[in-house]
Amino acid sequence: MAAPVVQPELICPRMSRPDLERHFHRHDRIGIILAWIASPGYVVVTKLRFAKYLWSNQTRWGKLLGRLVWRNIVNQHGCHISLHASVGPGLRLPHPVAIVIGDDCVIGSNVTLYQNVTLGQRRDDIPGGPRIEDNVTIYAGAVVAGSITIGRGASIAANALVLEDVRPGERVGGNPARPLGPAMPKIKRATVYDQQPY
Q1: Predicted confidence band of residue 56 (pLDDT cuts 50, 70, 90)
Q2: What is the 3-state secondary structure (H, E, C) of the chain?
Q3: What is the C-alpha separation between 151 and 128, in angstroms, rounded?
Q4: β-pair type (178-182, 170-173)
């Protein structure tokens, strides 16, 4: 029986189109060019998908080229996102600086990560990373550690230390994190195309 074919993340429209739309609200060729120029977060996510595509090639050259693209993300953008992490479509990085995502992390669709966010193991001798469900927002400086689940639509406040599960739609903050109430409602971001001329 033949081995299953790995779906290339970069080429697959269900992965790349949501990334573009979440960063720039356009998904045509002009949008790709403008996003590449104006949105560092889109550049990081696109390079990550390309590195994962090369890495999944299962050839010596594919793994080497994938590792080189990944190294460029680390050196140029300061983001350490593991090639073994599972990253869903629509990942948004408004300020892609010092973001760390470990090997065992699973990230759902339409997740937003701000600067200095760390997702990974709690300790070296305890494997397992967090599972981030769809539509979660994690603000600057937050640390989510251990084999825990962040529920759909949850929000994690800046500089929070999350070591336990977060229920869907809940907002948590503090060190250690504790519930602060329901997550703030999502507001549509204004874009250049939404603004009226003077």
Answers
A1: confident
A2: CCCCCCCCCCCCHHHHHHHHHHHHCCCCHHHHHHHHHHCHHHHHHHHHHHHHHHHCCCCHHHHHHHHHHHHHHHHHHCCEECCCCEECCCCECCCCCCCEECCCCEECCCCEECCCCEEECCECCECCCCEECCCCEECCCCEEECCCEECCCCEECCCCEECCCECCCEEEECCCCEEEEECCCCCCCCCCCCCCCC
A3: 17
A4: antiparallel
What CATH number was assigned to the domain covering residues 13-180? 2.160.10.10
Q: What tens digit of pLDDT does each residue of 96-110 get?
A: 999 999 988 999 999
- Residue 87 dihedral angles phi and psi, to the nearest 5°: -120, 120
- Measured CA to CA, the distance from residue 168 to residue 186 in angstroms comes to 14
* For the chain, domain boundaries: 13-180
Tracing tokens 């889109």 back to the chain, one arrives at 42
pLDDT band at residue 195 using 50, 70 and 90 as cut-offs = very low
Give the pairing of strands 170-173 and 106-107.
unpaired
Phi, psi of 143 (to 5 degrees): -120, 125
Contact indicator for 136, 122 with CB cutoff of 8 Å: no
pTM (global) more than 0.70: yes
φ/ψ of residue 175, rounded to 5: -135, 100
